[in-house]
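TEACHING EXERCISE
Course module: macromolecular assemblies
Task: Read the component lines below, then compare them to the predicted structure of the full complex.
Student: A.B.
Group: 4
Components provided:
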Amino acid sequence: MVEQATQQAESVVRGRARARDTTKAQLVVAANRLPVHHSPNNGSDDWRPSPGGLVSALTSVLQNRNGLWIGWPGTTEPENVPPSYEGIRLKALNITEDEYENFYLGFSNATLWPLYHDAIRAPTFHRHWWQAYSQVNMRYAQAVADNVALNGTVWIHDYQLQLVPRMLRELRPDVRIGFFLHIPFPPIELFMQLPWRRDILAGLLGADLIGFQVTQAASNFSRMARRQSSATGTDSLLDFEGRSIRVGAFPISVDSDQIVELAHDPAIRARSAEIRKDLGDPEVVLLGVDRLDYTKGIQQRIKAVSEMFQDGSLKPGKHVMVQVAVPSRETDAHYERERHNLEQAVSEMNGEHGQVGNPVIHYLHQNLPFAELVALYLAADVMIVTPFRDGMNLVAKEYVMCRSDLTGRLVLSEFAGAAAELRGAFMVNPHDLEGVKEAIRLAVNAGPKEARDRMSRMRRKTYRRDVYDWAESFLLALRQTAM
Ligand code: G6P
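Instructor-supplied answer key:
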């Protein structure tokens, strides 16, 4: 009894000390990447904010709560990560060369990434990759446990960190844990291939709230959990090891106001006019913007457009395509091959249909500043987004937010999460080449009224449900979970 009372008293004292400790954060975000990245061209101390609405939204929620962001600085070289960014504290979680190979390139991007994207490339299963994945996840859990305040809140992001919720719960049962998966969660038949499927499920079930991009992913997960773990319950509320876990869809979005503002910026509008002029003042500009990834269907899209130049439904000089492919995971063989094949397709298309001074496709393998992307979105009459599978696809939402003149047209894969909301798009099955061609043809030839109706429907849906709304609704749902 005495011993128990002493232990309790000690634990209360420890708890109070933790609560008083202002170095601990009320809200911790853990993600595979920090919100800043190193820009190697500009000297060793140059760190820039990573692009995208996610960083802005999470920064704003962290700023108000003595927040901390734990993540990888994107390099295996020890670097001087700044201690804070826009008032939020940063904690770098470094990984070794071996972990880069086995955790990042291996288990995260050659096992989970393809498996969760319909196995478009065959996933590879290696036990030593799994070991590295568990090891890095444990390091994250420990780093979070050491830095979160008593009864604090932790928000863990994405497929690289699926074991962290359970590991963290074991270390710190007092904290509230949310997990959000940014990519699809696969159907049962595919997930069953994973030799460590039970561990991943148990890892995720350590959270109080598990968020997905779309309802389908949430129900894939809950069905899988009921089948392969002791979880019981419904698709939206599971009981596991005496706890209740909420599961739901929280579709991520963009920073609508920021994009609308940029799209009205006179300098960006002038740049957009300049782009059209540089493209030879064509009647119709078609645009693709993607991370160079085999899930994005870039080659299929180029093949479709190329065949349309071939059969005369598109005409050199009158129609022109721009494809931006943002460099990604370049040390992975699948990505290297994808780039090679894509560049071959681009060069064949220009070789066959281009004219001197009049290429039919302009290809940029570059990471463009966001302002330049907005200028491109403004210059494009038809935006083509045709992934084979995509958690959400924010490019589609960015394009829609730029088009306040209601003239742009969006061709969108029905396998992108964004398709659930952007019903005004010209929908395609990216595997159906004839269907893709037909949708592009309809988009190119759509009259102004049809384009306006479709675009205003999509803008109405996207404007309010921005990334701030996404972050707030996730955190509100997390606060409402039972502890
Ligand atoms: C997707 C994932 C993110 C990832 C990003 C870039 O959007 O959901 O977690 O950070 O791709 O990939 P990378 O491997 O460069 O981090």
